[in-house]
Amino acid sequence: MRDLYKRLGISPAASDTEISAAIEACQHTALKAEASVVLGVKSRREEYDRLHALLCDIGRLRARLGLSHGQYWLDNAANDFSMSPDNDHSRHEALVHKVTQAVALHDTFLRWRRYAPWIVAGGFALITTATLAVGFVAG
């Protein structure tokens, strides 16, 4: 779906007179006809505005996830709702952070793994000693 506002060079908040003027000034006949049918009727424009807002939200989400500007999106009508990549909230940084945490946890596990048999044996000995001591005191 094409972004009619973007193609006509107007804001989604444009007035009816601005939209009519942009449609009249449009040189592309197919775009002019589509814009007249969709934006020229109030009920259709309201429905288009809801859909337009949704598609803009999806474009922002794709940009946040780093999915914008893939080879299959370029030079296509689908590119109308693409946003520039959002490097402030890059998914790459979050993934690097998670991998770093996983590596640190794995390293800790490897350090403590060699002590596991001794910890289990010591725990068993402690429990056995405590049980025997309680038995002697009680008996």
From TrEMBL:
<feature type="transmembrane region" description="Helical">
    <location>
        <begin position="115"/>
        <end position="138"/>
    </location>
</feature>
<protein>
    <submittedName>
        <fullName>Uncharacterized protein</fullName>
    </submittedName>
</protein>
<keyword id="KW-0472">Membrane</keyword>
<keyword id="KW-1133">Transmembrane helix</keyword>
<keyword id="KW-0812">Transmembrane</keyword>
